[in-house]
Amino acid sequence: MPALALAFDVGGTSVRGAVVGAADVVLAESRVATRIGPAVLDDIARMGEGLLAGLSPAARAEVAAVGVAFPGLVDTEAGISRRAVNLGLVDTLVAAPLAEHLGLPVTVAHDTAAAAGAIWEDAGSPASAFVAVLGTGVAAVTYVGGRAILGVSGQAGEIGHLVVDPAGPRCGCGLRGCVEAYAGARAMLERYASRGGDTRVSGVAELVARAEYDRLAAEVWSEAITALADGFLAVGALLAPGEIILGGGVAEARRALLDPLQARMRERAGVTAVPPVRLSTLGGRAGLIGAARLALAAVRTNP
Ligand SMILES: [Zn+2]
């Protein structure tokens, strides 16, 4: 039984890599800022080499597979990035060059699917749930009858681009007032900086901590929570899921997110039933854990 996987979570801001073992134990972890274009693939290969080189020979021998959680449109069968706007990639081979470089089988997964799958399994695989991954992007997977509902395009669950205010801020997708334009990690930091916030603030955790005493940080965080509340109420109205489960880096704010979010949803619910909301324990590692699980599952079924 293969024991260890090398996992990568490729985001618009950073590329994370880790060696993940049984019970999702992370043995080694690494992170670099994302470079746009094909250079990102060189960075993944180099990070993989570095992580493997840091293992003991015995542990190195246990690494059986590589899992890559990749953003945008992914052909998981062929291991190709069809389109990753934030990375500047179109029809780019991901699995084949990495497999050759590292000498291991590579599984490429869509980042939201990998993260949401891990969060959902971690939550006990509930029959009905809406699993939202909150990071630079905001996306989700809906589970009904214990199955992921991906839609005919495979892209169902793009709650990040649900418009909650048509006169709102411009989103990366070109529309105005999307959930992500308020609640995406990068959007929050940009909104804070553009209003004259402290330029040293570089992460959402810092922004949330500052919200205790910094009026601008509190405003930006509160507006993000309102956008998420309205987005989740729309989900509640359409799908009435058994629960909403939150993971991803922004969900690492824990109660500073959950408490005001639940209150805001109750305030703004109207006649819509408010679904219960809970936090995943996986936080920002969900993509890595999900990629590792998918990679190990692939070598088990196809050794
Ligand atoms: Zn958008």
Classified by CATH, the class of the largest domain is: Alpha Beta
Anisotropy-based shape: globular
Strand content: 15-25%
Strand line-up across the major sheet = 3-2-1-4-8
Low-confidence stretches: none
Proportion of helical residues: 25-40%
Structural class designation:
alpha/beta
Bound molecules: zinc ion
- List the domain count as a whole number: 2
What this model shows, in words?
- The structure is a single chain.
- By secondary structure, the protein is of the alpha/beta class.
- It has two domains: 4-111 and 285-301, ATPase, nucleotide binding domain (Nucleotidyltransferase, domain 5); 124-279, ATPase, nucleotide binding domain (Nucleotidyltransferase, domain 5, 2-Layer Sandwich), CATH 3.30.420.40.
- It contains ten helices and 13 strands.
- The strands form three sheets. The chain has a five-stranded mixed β-sheet, sandwiched between helices.
- α4 packs across α10 and α6 packs antiparallel against α8.
- The longest helix has 25 residues, at 215-239.
- The chain is globular, with a radius of gyration of 19 Å.
- The relative contact order is 0.15.
- The mean pLDDT is 94.
- Bound molecules: zinc ion.
- Zinc ion is lined by residues 161, 171, 173, 175, 178, 180.
